[in-house]
Amino acid sequence: MTARKGFIRRRPFSTVAMLMVVFLLAVVWTWRVPLQAFPSIISAYTAKEYCSCRYVMNNPVDDCQAYVKQWLPSTLTESLADKRITATGMGRESSAQWQGQRQGCRLLPAEP
Questions:
Q1: What pTM, to 2 d.p., does this model score?
Q2: Where is the region Disordered (predicted)?
């Protein structure tokens, strides 16, 4: 017991740092499933909101790009022929397509 007290007294910052690392690992392990889903959320949000801005609200391209701009970079591809938006962010790709005046925009299933 005294050996542990001696280590903590001699190295208080190392002990606190090790405890913080263990705590962070426990938090990451607890939240592993939501953390894995996070990259998909970025591209899906961008595609859906941009599609709604362009085709439901009928806003110009510049306004919609400013509306969906985020801290994390993403790219947008717009197909005017079928009113489909494809967004790529954090290595994931999502698409949304305008369904009609009453339905608005809908996220499309991921292509394998």
A1: 0.70
A2: 90-112
